[in-house]
Records
---
Amino acid sequence: MHAKMTSKMAAFLLSGLMVTPALADFPEKRIEIVVGYAAGGGTDVLARTIAPYLEEYLGNNASVVIKNMPGASGQIGVTEVAQAAPDGYTIGTYNLPGMMARTLDREAAFDADSFTYLANVVDDPNVIVTPKSSAIDTMDKLVDAAREGAVTVSMSSLGGDDHFFLMNVADVTGGEYTPVPFSGSAPARSALMGGHVTMGIVNISEVINFRDELNVLGIATQERSPLADDVPTFAEQGYELYNSALRGFVAPAGLPDEVEAALISAFQQTYDDPEFQDVMLRTGNPIELAVGEDFRRLNDEQLELAERVWEISPWK
Amino acid sequence: MYASLIDALPEVLSWMNLAAVVVGVIAGICVGALPGLSATMAISVLIPFTFGMDPLVALGMMAGIYNGAMYGGSIPAILLRIPGTPAAVATSFDGYPMAQQGKGGYALQVAVVSSAIGGVASALVLMLLAPPLAKVTLLFGPAEIFWVAVFGMSAIVFLLGGDILKGLISACFGIFVSLVGADTITGYDRYTFGHLELLDGINIVVLLVGLYALPPAIALLEEKKELDTSNAGKLNTVSIWKAIPGMLQYWKTWLRSSVIGVFIGILPGAGGSMAAFLSYNEAKRASRHPERWGEGEPEGVAAAETSNNADTASALIPALTLGIPGTAVAAVMLGGLLIHGLQPGPMLFRDNPDIVFGFMWQFLFAAILLIALGGSFATNSFAQVLRLPRPLLGAIIIALVFVGVYSINGRMFDVYLMLGFGFIGYFMDKLKFPLPPVVLGLILGGFAEQNLRLALRIGGGDVMALAASNTAKVIIVLTLFIILTPIISRLLRMRKARNA
Amino acid sequence: MTNIDNERDERDASTSQSSSITSPSRGESGETSLKAMTPPLWSHPDLVAGVLIIVASALLLTRTSSMPFMTALLPVTMLGALIVLAALMVLRALVGGKGNRKLAPRFPVFSDAKAFWCIILAISLYMAGVATIGFYTSTAIMLPVVAWLFGYRDLKRLLLADIIFTGGLAVVFVVLMGQELPAEFFVR
C-alpha cells in the first residue's frame, strides 16, 4: 500500500516535471497540421501559406509541417485530429458547414464537442451566378423565373454550404429550384457557363477569375466584399440571405489552456500581419478571423442551420 | 495572345527551367517504366515538395514527368505485358507480341517516336487553340458527356477478346467497381462498408496496379513460362534516327490518333486510356489487314502511344481555362498549379501570362526531349533492369507496387485494396478473363451513370432531353456509325460471297 | 479457385516451405499426375469461378435494398448481369467441360500451386511488416528473403541489390522528397 503510494507520488512528480516545462515553452517539437485534402487544394494551400507565419509567431524555433490525409471530403483528416492526443502538436484544418453536416448524414467518429476551436480564417460567402448570355441578370428576374417554373441550380455537392444556401434561397424567395449536385464547384461552374443549367451557387473566390463570363447576381454578406465591391449584397436587393463556407483550424478537445492560448495568439498575430493579408487577397481568399469562443459560436450556428435543413428536407 | 506566347519564351529557356524539364522527363520515364509507379503518384508526391519553388521550375518538372511517364509506361507494357500507366494498356496489345517475336527494340522505337509526335501535336494545340477549344468543352454538359461515355464504352465491344462471355463478365465487374463510393446525386454510400477511404471511389491506379502489375510479379516468382522476359534484354541497337524514316508510313495513324487524343483530352474526365483504346480501334478499322492486329502490328503500338501522349497537353485546356481536368493525371496536376496560387480561369491567362504560356512551351520541349532522352539510352537501361534474375525482379516489383499505391494518398488502405485486386487479377488472368474491359468499365461506368442522372435531373426526367442539343445528336450518330459499320460491312461481304 | 490437388499442396507448402518450393521434381510430378487423371467435372475452374461470382453478386445484391431507387439501379443491373453471365458460364462448363474441350477449355489455374500460396503468404507477411515495423525495414528483409526462397542464391549480389534498391528508395523519398512511407518502428 505504502509502496504503491510512493510509486504513484513518484509518477505524479515525474509527470509534473515533464509536463510543466513543456507547457511553459510550447512548442518544443514539431507541430503537424493535418489537412483533409490532397496537396494543392484550397484548404491545403491555406495551411501551407499559414504554416511559416505560425512558426514565426509561435517562436521557440517552432516547426510546423503539413500532413495530407485526403479522402471523404476531409472527413478522414478531421477524424484523425479529433482522435489525436490533445497536446497541441496535432492540429487540423476544419471546414464548415461540411464537418458538422457529416455528423448528421453519416456515421462520424466526432461531434461538435470533439474539438478545441482555435481560429477560423477564411470566410468565403456564397454568390448566385448565371451565364453572361442569360437574360436573368438580377435577383428579381431570377425570383420571377423561379416562381413561374422550376429553375435548375448547379452546385458542388449535397450537404455543403451551396446546398444549405439554396435551401435558404428557396425559403426566403419562394419559387421552385431543382438542385443539380456536381462533384465539385469547377464542373458546376462549367455546366453553368455552357448554359446547361439556369443558375449556379458557388463561392465568391470561385468566380473572381470568371467575372467576364458570369453574371454575379448577389453576395450573401452583410457588407460588400473587398474582392468584388461592384457585386451588391442580397440584403441590398431586399433578400435577407447570409451564408458562407468557412475554413479554419481546430485541435483535439481538452487542449491545455496555455497551449490553446499560445496557438490562438499565433493565429491572431498571423492574421494581423499585413503581408499575410496581402497574400490571401492576391490568391482570392476572403479572410475574416474568429478565434476561440467566437469560432465555437460560428460552428454552433452552422450546426443549427444544418440540423434545420436536415429536419425539413434530409438530403439523403 | 500569340505575342504573350513569344514573350514567355526567354524565361523558359533559362537553364534552371530547361533543367527542370529534362529532370522531369527522365524521372517520368523511370516512373512510367517501373511497374507499380505511375504519373499520378509521382506528381502527387512532387506537389507538396514544389511549394515555395519558382512556379516554372515546378511546372516544368510536372510537364516533363507527365510526358515522360506516358511514354515510359510503354516500356514494361511492351517488354513484360505490364502496362506502366493506365494509358499503356492498349500499347501492350501489339507491343508485347512484337517483343516476343524479337522486335521489342523496334516496338520501343515506334513507341517513343509516336509518343513524341502525339505530345508535340497536343502541345501545339494547347498553345494555339486553348481559348476556342475551351468553348468546345463548354458545349459538353452532362447529357453530352454521357453520350461521350457511351461512345467510349462502344470500344469495350472490341476489347472483349475471344470469349465473349468472359469479356462481358470482366466489363460488368469493372462497371460495378466504378460504382463503389458515395453517390453524389443522392448522397447515399454504395458498397463502402463503413470505410471512409472508399467514399471517393476506387482510384484507377489502385485497380490497375493490382490487376496488371501484381500477377506478373507472382508469375515471375513462380518461375514458369508465363512471363517471358528472355527477349527483354535483347533489343536491337539500330539508332533511332535511322529507324525513323521507316516509320513515316504510319503518318496517317499518327494524324488520326493525334486528333482523337486531343479531342478526348479536352473533354472533362475521360482521358488517357480511353483515348488509347479508341484510337487503337480506329486504326485497326482503317487498316488493310486488321487480322494482323494483336499479333505484333507496329501500327497498333503507334496508334496507342500517339494518342495517349496527344491528350496530355490538351487535357490541360479545360484544366487551365475552367478548372475541370481532362485526365486523372491532369487532375493531380491542377493541384500543382493551385499550390502556386494559380487559380484556373480566363483571368489566369491575363494575370500570369508568363507562367501559363511558359508552361505550354515546357510541354512542347518535354515532348521533343522524349526522342533524345527516351531513345536508346533509357530503353537500354531498362532492358538491363528487366534482365535481372526473375526472383529478384519479382520481389522488386512487389516492393514497388507498395510504394506506388501507398504514396498516392499516403495510406495503407489503398495497398490492401490493391492486393485484393491483385488476387482477383491473378485468377482472371489464368482463366483468360480479359482485363482491358475491367479498366474501361471502371473509367467509364460511374462516369456515364453520374452524367446520365445529372442530365435527367436537368431535363426534369425527360429522356428526350438527353438528345436535345446538336452536340448530343452528333455524338449519337457517331457512336451508331462506329458500332454499325463492322456489322454492315460483314453483311455486305457475306452477300458478295454468296453472289460470287 | 481450389482444386483437390492444390488443396493438398497448400497444406504441404505451409508446413515445409523452403524444402518443397525449390525442388523442381515434385512440381513436375504434380503436373503429370494432373494430366494423367481426368479431374472431376466440379473442379472445372470456370465452374468454380462462376459459382463464386454468383454467390458474391447475390451477397452484394442484398445490400441494395436500403438504397434509393436511382442509386440502386445500376448496381442491381450490373450484379444481375453478372449472375446471369456467370450462370451461363457454369452451364457451359457443365455441358462442354467433359468431352468437347473447345467449348469450355480448362486453363491451368496454378503453374505451381505451392509456390503460389507461398507467394501469397510472403506478400501478406510483407504487408503486415510494412504496417507494423515500417516500410524500409520490411523491404530490406523481404527482398533478399523472397528472392532467395524463390531460387536466386547469389548471396553477395542479393545483398548488393537489396542495399541499392532499398537505399535508392530511401534517398528518393526521404532525402529528396521528404515524403513519408509507413514509418520505421525505431523512429516512432
---
Amino acid sequence: MVTTPVTDLPERLVRPNVPRTVKDSRGYTVFRWLNAAALVVIMFVTLYPFVNLVAQAFSSEAYINSGQVNLVPRGFNLTTFQVVMEDRLFWRNYQNTVVYTVVATAISMVLTTSFAYAISKRALKGRNVFIGIAVFTMFFNGGLVPNYVLINGLNMTNTIWAIVLPNAISVFNLLVMKSFFENFPEELEEAASIDGLSTFGVFFKIVLPLSKAVIATMVLFYAVSFWNSWFSAFLYLDDRDLYPVTVYLRNLLAAATSADSIQGGGGGDLTQIASNVQAVTMVLTVLPIIALYPFLQKYFVSGVMLGSVKQ
Amino acid sequence: MSATTSGQATVPPEAAVAVREARRRRKGTGGGRSWAQALRRDWQLYSFVVLPLIFFIIFRYLPMAGNVIAFRRFRPGGSIFGEEWVGLHYVQMFISDPTFWNVFRNTIVLGALTLIIVFPLPIILALMLNELRSRMFKRLVQTVSYLPHFMSVVIVAGLVFQLTSVNGTINQLIESFGGDVVPFMQRADWFRTIYVSSEIWQTVGWGTILYLAALTTIDPQLYEAARIDGANRWRQTWHVTLPGIRPTMVVLLILNIGTFMAVGFEKILLLYNPILYPTADVVSTYLYRVGIVSSNFSYATAIGLFEALIGLTLILSANAISRRLVGTSLW
C-alpha cells in the first residue's frame, strides 16, 4: 500500500484548504496516468463502431468483402449513397419518421405538461390518487398481447395513432416535470393570482414562459425516443409506405441476416451488397442525432439531474 | 393555514383572500373538503387532468384488465376481454411447456449477467472520471461516452451485425492473431457475450450521470479529514466516496432489479435468429412469437402476466429489503 509521506502532514494541518499544493505520492501519479490512458481507450472503443460504420458507408463492396475496411474508407465509393437516396421508399419512410416524431412529441408535451402541473399542486384533492395511477404503470403494465389486442380493437392499426398515442406519457418525464413545477417560486404564482389571473392565466402567462428550459429538455427526450422507436410501427403497421425509417432499416438488416443464415455464414454477394447499403442507410438515419447531439447534450444531462432532485 | 400578517393592511381584502387561497393550495393537504367544493374551486386544475387520465385508463389500465384473457378463451375480432372462462388452462399449458422453461432460464441468465456485469461499471467509470483534473478532458470523455445512449436499438443491432460479421473488425483481429474466423451471429454460445457487450457499450457512459451528480454533493471536508487521518486516495475512495454515493447506488440497484425480467426485448428481437434460440430466446421474445406471430393470444398473455408479476414482486421485495437493511427506498 502506498501512503502519503508523513512530511506532508504538518503543512496540511497548517493550511488544510490547499490540498493541491501538496505533491502526489508516486503511486497516485502512476495511477492518474493509467487512468487517463484507460479513458482514452474507452473513448476509442465507444467511437470505433461509428468510425467503422462511416468507413464502410464510403467503401466499395470488394474491400468490405475481403474484410479490409476498418478506420478509413477503402475504394472510395459514393454510388451507394446515390442509390439509397434515390430510393423513393427510403425518403417516404424518412418523412414518416419526421411526421411521427413531431406529432407524437406535440401530443406528449401537452399531456405531460398539463398533468405534471396539476399534480404538482399539493392542495389538489385527489392528487395522490392521480400520482399513484401514473406511478403504478412504471412497475406493472398490460403486456404485449393485451396492448396489441386493444390497438386492434380500437381500429388503430395502419394509422398514425397507433404510433403516437399509446406511448404519449412517459412517467419518468412526468415526474421530472412535476418536481420542476413543485420547485417553481410560489411567490410568482401568488402575485399573479392577486393580479386577478385564473389558474389558466397563471399557467399560460407565468409558469410556461418561465419553464422554457425544462420544456426544451422534455421535448428533446420525447423527440429522441420517438425518432428512435421502431417496435410499435413494426407491430401495428402493415403498409410499407407508412413505415418510419427505423423499420426500413430493420427490414434491411433482417433481409441481410436471413441471407447470411441461408448461406451458413459463407458471405455471398447478396450479403455484402446489403452490408454496404446497410452502412449507408444507418449513416443517414443517425445523421440528425449525431449532428445535433453536441449542442443538445447539456439539456439531456440537466433533464436527468432534474429527475433526481426529488429524492 | 398561515394568514398573511404584514401585507394585509395595505392590500385590498379580496387580494388577501387570494393570497391565503394560494398559500392554502400550496401547503394544505387537500383533505377535509368535499369533492363538490374541491371541484368548484379547482375546476381549472381538474380540467388539466382529464385528458391524461383518459390516456392512462385507455392505454395503460385497459390492457392491464385485458390480462384476463389469460384465463378466458379469446376470439380474434371478438371482445378484448375474451369469450368464456377457461380457468388455469393456459397457466398449466406454459408450466408443462419445455420451451417456456428454456426461455425462462435464458431470461434469468441474461438478466443476471446484465445486473452483475453492467450495473457496477458506471460506478467505476464515474470514479475514474472523478480522478481527472482537466475539466476539458473530463467533458470530452463524458460527451463521447453518452453518445451511444441516443442511438436507436435498430442502429445498435446494425452495428453489432457489422462488427461481428465474418468480414467485420472482430474477425479481422482474430485473423491477424492467427485465429479462425468465427461466424458469431450463428453461434449460440457467443450470444450472451455479444448481448452484454452491446449493453455495456450503450448504457455505461450515460449511467454515470447520476453518480457524477452524487459525487459533487460529497462534502470536501470529509476528504480533508480522511487525509489528515492518513488515508491515501484508495482509502479515501473506499471510506468517503463510496459511502457518499451509496443512496444513488441503492436506488439504481432497486430499479435494475425491477427490470430484471424485461431484458432487452427489442434488441434481442432484432439480433437473434433460430440458430441462436438456445441462448438468445427469452420470455418476451417467446411470447411475441407465440402471441403475435402464431396468434395464440391467451397463451401468450398468460406467459406475459407471469413475467409481469415476477417483475412486480422483484421490485417490491428489493425495495422492502433495502428499506430495512440500508434505509434507502424508492417510496
